[in-house]
Amino acid sequence: MKKLVAGNWKMHGVAADLEQVRAIAEASRRFPSVDVALCVPATLIERAARAVPGFAIGAQDVHFAEKGAHTGCVCTAMLTDAGASLTIVGHSERRDSQRESDADVKAKSEAALGAGLGVILCVGESLAQREAGEAVRTASGQLDASLPHGEPAAAGVPDRLAVAYEPIWAIGTGKVASCEDIAEIHRALRERLVAAYGEAGDRVRILYGGSVKASNAPEIFAVADVDGALVGGASLSAEDFVPIIAAAAAVEAAPPIA
Ligand code: 13P
């Protein structure tokens, strides 16, 4: 499966940073075996999309409603109008701070797929849940409850849907899940995808996210069922991000180690 390496710029990025968007898009052409995307702040989508035609620029969230009285929110039509081709949904930072439920995340992914956008749907356990031995159950349960179903899902699976496993305790902390832990969760998520979509579930990409850097990317990408990465801090500059894309390209042909 072609790997997807996506950057999540979170609340970083103003006009001056378009230089990094350009540099990343330009460098990613050297790695045609890897799909690359950058999910930038909503305010930067249109300018980023104009700066790098043909390169995938995404959003970090979307509302599930078509339009209406939702102050501060952005709908799918606004994203496509601005030039976005995908969006993240269900990131733990939104599940926490904006109290997004699995049902919200499901509605968002269905709306985005229905509008023709790609979706990166995030799941992942907290440290307390991992320490309680609940990691697999938490991530699988979130996926079951937030996976898109119905017509829009059928149209978007597997090509436009990716799932990102992001253990909350590994985000921005420098702590990375072990290859064994990643393999265990990704295997469980794969089973849930196949249960939901049949054979097509085998072709949905499962990304790992949480302190991915150039130094740990090669071993993470070599784990079975790791089909790419969702990268936060290390996606903000070409200097840090391009070596991660290169690592994904390098393991493309190599056999899985776990
Ligand atoms: P970091 O790579 O900064 O840990 O962030 C991961 C993340 O949350 C990507 O969505």
The largest β sheet comes out as: 8 strands, parallel, barrel
Strand residues, percent = 15-25%
Query: Measured on Cα atoms, how large is the radius of gyration?
Result: 17 Å
Instruction: Give the name of the CATH architecture.
Output: Alpha-Beta Barrel
How far the N terminus sits from the C terminus, by CA atoms, comes to 16 Å
Q: How many individual β-strands?
A: 8
Q: Give the count of helical stretches.
A: 11
Backbone shape: globular
User: Which strands sit side by side, in order, in the main sheet?
Assistant: 1-2-3-4-5-6-7-8
Class derived from helix and strand content: alpha/beta
Examine the coordinates and then state which fold CATH places here, giving the name of the CATH topology: TIM Barrel
Summed up, the domain count is 1
What ligand molecules are bound, each kind once?
1,3-dihydroxyacetonephosphate
Q: Could you spell the SSE succession in H and E letters?
A: EHEHEHEHHEHHHEHEHEH
Q: Whole-number average pLDDT? A: 94
Low-pLDDT stretches: none
**Helix content range of the residues, please?**
40-55%
CATH superfamily: Aldolase class I
According to CATH, what is the class? Alpha Beta
